[in-house]
Design brief:
The protein is of the alpha+beta class. 69% of the residues lie in helices and 8% in strands. A 5-stranded mixed sheet has the order 2-3-1-4-5, with helices on both faces. α9 (261-268) crosses α10.
Length: 381
C-alpha cells in the first residue's frame, strides 16, 4: 500500500469521525470535545494536502500539509490537558508558544532550504513537545479509569513514534526517505491509523466520563459548602453502617446544629450567616480523618460519620470539634453549636438504619438545647 492510498484512507476516516463528532457536539459541551473537533478539522485538511503533495511536490503544498498537522497536535494536546484538568492559562500559553515555534521553524526551512530530514526533525520535535506533558498528566491521574489508561498509552505511543522519527532524522540525515521504510516513518503511519480508530472515541468517552462524574458530584454534594448533601450523606452512611456491622467496628454519628442562626441572620445579614455556615463546614472537614465524612443536612445543620469512634473515644473527638467551632469568628462574630450524638460500640447483628440514627441524634440535640447554647447530649442505644 503506497503513501497516497494511506493518506486517502486516513483522511476519509477522520472526515467520517469528524461528521459524527459534530453531531455529538450538540449534546456535549465539554471543552475537550471542542478541542478534539478542531484537531480533527486540522487533520483532515492536512491529509488533503498530503495527497496533493504526493502528486505535486511544490513547497507550498509541503507547508500546507504540515502546518495544519502541527495546529491539530496543539488542539489535541489541549484536549488531553482539559480531560486531566491541567489546562491552565499558563499551560495554554506554553503549548501555543511550542506550536508557533514549530510552525515558524518548519515554514522558514521549507521556504529557504530543501533538506527533508530537517523538516522531519522539526515536525517530530514539535509533536513530541506538544504531547508529552498532557500525556503524562492523563497517565498519572490516580483516579484514572481503564479507558483513561488506554488513551494515555495510545498517546504515549504517539510520543514514542515521534521520538523514533526524530532519531531517524538525526541519524540518517540525507539518507532518510520521506514516507519510506525507516522505522520512524512506519511508526508514524501506524500511530496515525491507531489515532484515527481509538483517539477520537477515547477522547469522547473520557469527556463523557468526566461529565458523568461531575453530575454525580453535583447530585451528592452541597453546592455551597462542598460537603455531602442530604442524599449523599444518607447513601454514604448506609454503606458505612454495612461495612462497620460486617467488621463489628464501632462508629458514631453526630448532628451539629449552629445555635441561633435566625438571630445572626437578622442582626448581621444573611451573607454573614452564610459565611458562618461555610466556615463551620471547613472546620468540620479539617477535624475529621479520611475514612470519616461530613454532610450538610439542612440550612444550619451538619452531620458527621466517625468510624472506629466508640464511647471511650467520643468525648475527645467532640471536645476537639466544639473547640474548633467556638474558636471561629467569621466577620468577628463568634458562634456556638449544639451537638447530639449516637454511638454503636458493637454494631454486628443489630438492625441499624439511617432513620433510627437521625431520630436519635435529633432527639439528643433537642435535649442538649435544653441546657443552653453549645450543649452536648448522647442518645442511648
Amino acid at each position: 500500500m503506497d503513501a497516497k492510498l494511506l493518506f486517502v484512507i486516513l483522511g476519509t476516516g477522520n472526515f467520517l469521525i469528524l461528521a459524527l463528532l459534530i453531531a455529538y457536539r450538540k449534546t456535549n459541551t465539554d471543552p475537550a470535545i471542542h478541542y478534539h473537533l478542531l484537531s480533527l478539522v486540522m487533520m483532515v485538511i492536512s491529509y488533503v494536502f498530503a495527497v496533493t503533495r504526493l502528486v505535486n511536490p511544490l513547497r507550498v503544498f509541503i507547508i500546507l500539509n504540515t502546518v495544519p498537522l502541527i495546529v491539530g497536535s496543539y488542539f489535541e494536546a489541549k484536549a488531553l490537558a482539559s480531560i486531566s484538568d491541567v489546562l491552565t492559562p499558563r499551560m495554554d500559553r506554553i503549548l501555543a508558544v511550542i506550536m508557533a515555534a514549530g510552525i515558524l521553524a518548519y515554514t522558514g526551512h521549507a521556504v529557504f532550504f530543501d533538506f527533508p530530514y530537517i523538516r522531519i526533525v522539526i515536525l517530530s520535535a514539535t509533536t513530541l513537545l506538544l504531547a508529552a506533558y498532557p500525556t503524562i498528566s492523563v497517565l498519572k491521574k490516580r483516579s484514572g479509569s481503564a479507558l483513561r489508561l488506554l488513551l494515555g498509552v495510545l498517546f504515549l505511543l504517539i510520543c514514542v513514534s515521534s521520538a523514533i522519527r526524530l532519531a531517524d532524522g538525526l541519524r540518517l540525515r540525507e539518507k532518510l526517505v520521506l514516507f519510506g521504510p525507516a522505522p520512524g516513518e512506519i511508526a508514524m503511519f501506524i500511530m496515525l491509523y491507531m489515532y484515527m480508530i481509538i483517539g477520537g472515541m477515547g477522547v469522547i468517552l473520557l469527556a463523557k466520563e468526566k461529565t458523568d462524574a461531575r453530575l454525580i458530584l453535583l447530585a451528592y454534594h452541597d453546592g455551597y459548602t462542598g460537603t455531602l448533601n442530604r442524599d449523599g450523606f444518607i447513601d454514604s452512611t448506609t454503606r458505612a453502617i454495612g461495612e462497620c456491622a460486617y467488621r463489628n467496628e464501632a462508629f458514631s454519628v453526630i448532628l451539629i446544629d449552629i445555635d441561633d442562626m435566625d438571630g445572626i441572620n437578622e442582626a448581621h445579614g444573611y451573607e454573614t450567616g452564610n459565611r458562618i455556615i461555610l466556615r463551620a463546614a471547613e472546620l468540620l472537614r479539617g477535624e475529621i480523618r479520611s475514612p470519616d465524612f461530613v454532610g450538610r443536612f439542612g440550612g444550619d445543620e451538619f452531620m458527621v460519620f466517625l468510624k472506629g469512634i466508640d464511647r471511650l473515644k467520643f468525648d475527645g473527638v467532640v471536645a476537639r470539634i466544639k473547640s474548633a467551632l467556638e474558636g471561629a469568628a467569621p466577620e468577628g462574630i463568634r458562634f456556638s453549636a449544639s451537638i447530639g450524638a449516637v454511638t454503636f460500640d458493637y454494631p454486628a447483628g443489630r438492625q441499624i438504619d439511617f432513620p433510627l440514627i437521625h431520630d436519635a441524634c435529633y432527639g439528643a440535640v433537642k435535649e442538649a438545647k435544653k441546657h443552653g447554647s453549645g450543649g452536648v447530649s448522647m442518645a442511648l442505644t
